[in-house]
Specification:
It comes from Streptomyces amritsarensis. The protein is an alpha/beta fold. It is built from 13 helices and 25 strands. Strands 2-1-9-8-10-11-12-13-14 form a 9-stranded mixed β-sheet.
Length: about 450
């Protein structure tokens, strides 16, 4: 999996930089070998690492892969309850990792393993219950990284820049293992600030919408990315105004992609493509998708198959079985539409929170959110459907805005979209709560009091 560490791409002195600390491939490999030796000596069956933005985290994950021991990255800000649950559920143990300790010996061969054996166990966010362990094999990871390298023309000539958490697919699998697979130089900025991105001098940048929106608000930082080759956004929908602001300042149209912890990245725009904002491209090689829509509906649940899918939820065979249809397609739980002519996918939102059935219409919350964000006074927007005796569900918009009334925003949406898609209620909030990857936590909005229009 880790092509760069085999010497194929030479030994760059500045191969990996994390939060200002730099290491060569040789130094990283030495530290990872020491981790592998420690794991072998201790007999740890599953290895948990507190995934801080550090060279130690990179060495720990690589060392576990070398040793053939499944690795569980722990969120560094996890509270005692969450951390305890993950450790108990996975049976993982922690070991101290010191990047200065290095071995020049390859680890002893582990028990016979295949590419389908567990490589990483990543835990879901737990928004619908206790976090579940998603088991990913090296076969799934390599299939995904190779497909993305083709789609994004990602090679050893690139310098990848990002500042994303190292306990998620985006930051760890794409942002670290992807660099070690392609041989591209990696610069992890520690924190994903506009200033850090602007100063990094990369050719390829990864970010979530929160990162890109902050960069868009700093035109000098966005302009500094003009020398890059490709900007990529994922993990949540990118607001159209942010897309346009980044394009205006940098000259780049951000490429959006779609994926989940359980599937890795399955749909993406391509390098050199020209897709409009709000679309995530077409399936990667080997991935097949379909839309399970009710008769006459243009949108429905996105379902897919392919080599990048997870091996299952750890210790939860019932949950694993429930994630698939009877004929073997993975149910993403996301609502999407696919262009009839070009096959381009557009993600509307989650079936549980973003599919609104109001007055007989099926409405995607994301479309309304984008319309609201086009208003110059609106900084953030989240739209939900709440029970309504007359409509079934009424559309409620939570917005962060100043100098505008709810009635004005309702009229603004009605003028841009169909009238039946207008919010029936606008609630003003100080901020839209988000998780570590920038995804709105809409259930929290419904639990907290807020100002009505």
């Amino acid at each position: 999996m880790l092509t760069a560490l085999t010497g194929v791409h030479g030994d760059r002195a500045d191969a990996v930089t994390v939060a200002g600390r730099t290491a060569s491939y040789e130094e990283l490999l030495g530290a990872a070998r020491q981790v592998a030796a420690d794991l072998a000596a201790s007999g740890v069956p599953v290895f948990a690492v507190t995934a801080t933005a550090s060279l130690e985290t990179v060495a720990a994950v690589v060392g576990a892969l070398l040793a053939g021991v499944p690795c569980v990255p722990l969120p560094p800000d996890a509270g005692p309850a969450e951390r305890g649950h993950i450790l108990r559920d996975s049976g993982a143990r922690t070991l101290e990792v010191d990047f200065a300790r290095r071995s020049d010996r390859a680890p002893a061969p582990a028990a016979a393993r295949t590419p389908d054996d567990p490589a990483l166990i990543l835990y879901t966010s737990g928004t619908t219950g206790a976090p579940k362990g998603v088991v990913l094999s090296s076969a799934a990871i390599t299939a995904d990284l190779d497909a993305l390298a083709e789609a994004w023309q990602w090679s050893a000539e690139d310098t990848l820049v990002h500042g994303l958490p190292l306990f998620h697919v985006h930051g760890l699998v794409l942002g670290v293992l992807g660099a070690l697979r392609t041989g591209s130089r990696l610069v992890h900025t520690g924190r994903p600030t506009p200033e850090a991105y602007a100063a990094a001098g990369g050719s390829l940048y990864f970010g979530v919408p929160t990162v890109w929106s902050r960069i868009a608000r700093e035109p000098h930082a966005a302009a500094a990315l003009s020398g890059a080759r490709l900007l990529v956004s994922g993990s949540a929908a990118l607001p159209a105004p942010v897309f346009r602001d980044i394009e205006g300042a940098s000259g780049h149209r951000i490429v959006e992609r779609y994926g989940m912890t359980e599937t890795l990245i399955t749909v993406s725009g391509r390098a050199g493509g020209d897709l409009p904002p709000g679309t995530v491209g077409t399936p990667l090689p080997g991935i097949t998708t379909r839309i399970a829509a009710e008769d006459g509906a243009e949108i429905g649940e996105l379902q897919l198959t392919g080599p990048t899918l997870f091996s299952g939820y750890l210790g939860r065979p019932e949950a694993t079985a429930a994630a698939y249809t009877e004929d073997g397609w993975f149910r993403t739980g996301d609502i999407a539409a696919v262009g009839e002519q070009d096959g381009v996918h557009r993600i509307v939102g989650r079936a549980s929170t973003d599919m609104i059935k109001s007055g007989g219409y099926r409405i995607g919350a994301g479309e309304i959110e984008n319309a609201l964000l086009d208003h110059p006074r609106v900084r953030e927007a989240a739209v939900v459907g709440v029970p309504d005796a007359d409509l079934g569900q009424r559309i409620v918009a939570f917005v962060v805005a100043e100098g505008v009334t709810g009635a004005e925003l309702t009229d603004f949406v009605a003028a841009h979209l169909s009238v039946h898609k207008r919010p029936r209620e606008v609630r003003f909030v100080e901020a839209v709560p988000r998780n570590a990857m920038g995804k709105p936590q809409k259930r929290l909005l419904l639990e907290e009091p807020s100002g009505k229009a």
